[in-house]
Write a structure and sequence with these properties.
The complex is a heterodimer. Chain A is an all-beta fold. Chain A has strands at residues 5-7, 10-14, 19-24, 32-38, 45-50, 56-59, 62-67, 72-77, 86-93, 100-102, 106-111. Helices cover 0% and strands 54% of the residues of chain A. Chain B is mainly β. Chain B is built from no helices and eleven strands. Chain B has strands at 5-7, 10-13, 19-24, 31-37, 43-50, 53-57, 64-68, 74-78, 87-94, 103-104, 108-112. In chain B, strand 7 and strand 8 (74-78) form a beta hairpin. Chain B is globular and about 35 Å long. Classes of the chains: A mainly beta, B mainly beta.
């Protein structure tokens, strides 16, 4: 059974703080690692898809890194803003097609 | 707006009944995915279709079935419903289904009473 683990489960930070979360996934048969942002009452929205060991992706103040050999990815948010408050999901692709196994998510709350 | 349309948004039904959830993918996307989000679990992959054919299957119950039609819309059929089937069902789409980000619909909230 493939387990994708995310930590921490939740995080409270002050506006302006920088923060990071971890996603752990089995490193064997790795195809791709996805990050999604899920705001309350909305649907998950893709941030990044990473496939190569050492990949780094950036979108505004959010960036991600990937280590496929040891099976982890970090998501960084620089200078958190209240609008960054959301649940951040990672998902690992396994096997045929684009079947993704999602982690439980990290819920971020940014206080003004 | 992701461009993925799911109907209905909410569905309330009784145990033992059968329901159909509908999904229209983004224009041009050939792959459709169904996910289930229960209170005590994360997003669980159910099934993926690509251009009308089943591409990958997850932990989908035998009481559940899905299909993708020639116009690429998809339907998820849930039968002999149980209380535990109450969940948020998401449909997502992607262009071809290989290492691409998914575009999620707004979901169908199913309540089985």
């Amino acid at each position: 059974i493939l387990n994708v683990e995310q930590s921490p489960q939740s995080l409270h930070v002050q506006e302006g703080d920088s923060t990071n979360f971890t996603c752990s996934f089995p490193s064997s048969n790795f195809y791709a690692l996805h990050w999604y942002r899920w705001e309350t009452a909305k649907s998950p929205e893709a941030l990044f898809v990473m496939t190569l060991n050492g990949d780094e992706k950036k979108k505004g103040r959010i960036s991600a890194t990937l280590n496929t050999k040891e099976g982890y990815s970090y998501l960084y948010i620089k200078g958190s803003q209240p609008e960054d408050s959301a649940t951040y999901l990672c998902a690992s692709r396994v096997g045929a097609g684009n079947m993704l196994t999602f982690g439980g998510g990290t819920r971020l709350m940014v206080k003004p | 707006d992701s461009g993925v349309t799911q109907t209905p948004k909410h569905l309330i039904t009784a145990t033992g009944q059968r329901v159909t959830l509908r999904c229209s993918p983004r224009s041009g996307d050939l792959s459709v995915y169904w996910y289930q989000q229960s209170l005590d679990q994360g997003l669980q992959f159910l099934i993926q279709y690509y251009n009308g054919e089943e591409r990958a299957k997850g932990n989908i119950l035998e009481r559940f079935s899905a299909q993708q039609f020639p116009d690429l819309h998809s339907e998820l059929n849930l039968s002999s419903l149980e209380l535990g089937d109450s969940a948020l069902y998401f449909c997502a789409s992607s262009p071809s289904g290989n290492n691409e980000k998914l575009f999620f619909g707004s979901g169908t909230q199913l309540s089985v009473l």
